[in-house]
Amino acid sequence: MDNPLIVIDKAVVSYREDIALRGVSLKVSRGEFVGIVGPNGAGKTTLLTVVNGMGKLLDGNVRVLGQYLAKGNGHSLRKRVGYVPQVQNIDPRMPICVREVVMIGRYGILGLFKRPHKSDYEIVDEAIELVGMTHLAERPIGHLSGGEMQRVSIARALAQQPELFLLDEPTASLDWKAQSDILELVKMVHDNRSLTTLFVTHDLSCLPVTCDRVVLMKDGYIWAEGPPVELLTDENLGELYDMPVAVVQSRRKKTVAVG
Amino acid sequence: MDLSIFGYQFMQNAILSAFLGGIACATIGVFVVLMHMPFIGVCMSHAAFAGALLGLWLGFNPLVGAFGVSLLSAAIIGPLADRGDLSPETSIGVIFSLMLGLAFLFMGLMPGTKSGALELLWGSILTNTRSDIILLGIVAVVVVALVFFFFKEIQATVFNRDTALAVGIPAAIFLYGILFLTGATITASLRSIGGLLIFSLILNPAAAAYQLTYNMKKMFLLAAAFGVLSGWVGLLFSYFFNLPSGATIVVTSSVIFMIAAIFSPKRKVKGWRNQPVTEKEA
């Protein structure tokens, strides 16, 4: 835990009218792959918004990439943080193609009045290739399937050449095949680019089993954290999701681990 | 056909006004279409109309009133649209009807003849003066220049505000900038096109361009071309058939939209999909 990339110290954060995080502390070191797991409304997404400078911090301290989170400095932080949201609804007639969407990842870093250079196009094309979308680079973004759109989102985040990679339920609403493809891609990208990754999910079958550490969240608190094999027991999950252990057991037998 | 009409100063003014107003309105329209906020535009144009009538009633410059009240409505609506987590349509509907109510209230309170008020309702491009043209010219140049210089930020913001924010672009500033420009454009075009009709000249050319291209730059250019075309063709019909100019301009823009929709390749997506995907494959 020397020189951690993310230090969250007793953060109290509001989301709309509610308190979403009630004094959460977390440290993440460079190169870690951290899974954040918990039921809906546990504060997982809010935890990510704190890390990329969008959360409303009521109390506590947050330091990300050596920068203390304060009002107004979020934009400079976000240029260094790749963020992949859930599958978004995109107007099928939206006049923008895949390569242009990935190029948006360069726009923040480029800054005002600067046009993309050849080097930016190279970074973009490389990211598109890494996620396997080169053959669709000229397609209108709205014509892609959900899984393809998530590949584009990942490529856009990579085009930022981020130090930190945040994923918020990236596999939600995808079919089983697309889910496992995206999970493999995320893990590959994490290793290939030596990223520090936070991966949020409510669905354990959508958690890469190779993650270094899991953080279990419930009701705005960190309920437990540690290596996945120790923490992800039927007893723990039963308590986390308020389900009888027997139900958890039968459910987990049906799901196939991916990664 | 007698073309000597183009030698007259008032006709030259009208042609120039249609050119500048067409470009400014259509460019704003691209934002309105891509950000899915047509109701915001409708609401702001009625707010501008109400503000102009307030000016006429109280005796100050109607355009100052138009600009002020449309910005005021944007200040109320903007945060609703920006939050995005709940549908802002209801609130916008309330403000829209309030603006219409205020407009007719001010008109009722106005003493004497209402011809000035009616002119703001229907617009009359054939009576545009040099100062009208200068105002339209300034707005058109500012709108086009801002789109040119901030194209990549605008592209990201209209594509998806959350995405723009996530890559470090201050998306809220661009959203409010766009609302501000909308207010300015509506105000400058109010006397030419009229408060009730202005929104069609904003929406229709951009909606037509939207049917025809998957490239945002082309969409801006096509929309501007359709906007100018609507203005000029509408002007001709207005003059030769002695019809209200605002109405003919709006009807022309609607016809252009219908033609674009009929010939839109985007309505034939199925056929496009069934083609072999070998195009541009590396």
Walk me through this protein's architecture:
The complex is a heterodimer of chains A (259) and B (282). The longest helix of chain A has 17 residues, at 176-192. Chain A is α/β, with parallel strands linked by helices and 259 residues long. In chain A, strand 9 (213-218) and strand 10 form a beta hairpin. Chain A is 35% helix and 25% strand. Chain A has nine helices and ten strands. Chain A is globular, with a radius of gyration of 18 Å. In chain A, the strands form two sheets. Chain A has a six-stranded mixed beta sheet with strand order 6-7-8-3-9-10, sandwiched between helices. Chain A has helices at 44-51, 74-78, 98-110, 118-130, 146-159, 176-192, 228-231, 234-240, 245-254; strands spanning 6-15, 18-28, 33-37, 56-64, 67-68, 81-84, 164-168, 196-201, 213-218, 221-226. With 282 residues, chain B is mainly alpha-helical. Chain B has a single domain (8-260), classed as ABC transporter involved in vitamin B12 uptake, BtuC. In chain B, 78% of the residues lie in helices and 0% in strands. Chain B contains 13 helices and no strands. Chain B has helices at 9-34, 38-58, 62-83, 89-109, 115-122, 130-149, 151-159, 161-166, 171-193, 198-212, 216-241, 245-262, 269-274. In chain B, helix 1 packs parallel to helix 6, helix 1 (9-34) runs antiparallel to helix 9 (171-193) and helix 3 (62-83) packs antiparallel against helix 9 (171-193). The radius of gyration of chain B is 19 Å and the shape is globular. The A-B interface holds A 16, 52, 54, 75-79, 81, 83, 85, 88, 90-97, 100-101, 103-105, 107-110, 112-113, 115-116, 134-135, 137-138, 140-141, 143, 156, 160 and B 34, 36, 85, 149-150, 152-153, 155-156, 159-160, 162-170, 210-211, 213-216, 218-219, 266, 269, 273, 277, 279-282.
DSSP strand tally of chain A: 10
Q: Largest protein interface?
A: A-B, 42 and 36 residues
The CATH topology assignment of chain B is ABC transporter involved in vitamin B12 uptake, BtuC
Per DSSP E runs of 2 or more residues, the count of β-strands of chain B stands at 0
What order do the SSEs of chain B take from the amino end to the carboxyl end, as H and E? Answer: HHHHHHHHHHHHH
Radius of gyration of chain B: 19 Å
Helix content of chain A: 25-40%
Helices of chain B, by number, come to 13
How large, in whole angstroms, is the Cα Rg of chain A?
A: 18 Å
Uncertain segments of chain B: none
Structural class of chain B: mainly alpha
Major β-sheet of chain A, in short? 6 strands, mixed
Distance between termini of chain B? 56 Å
Main sheet properties of chain B: none
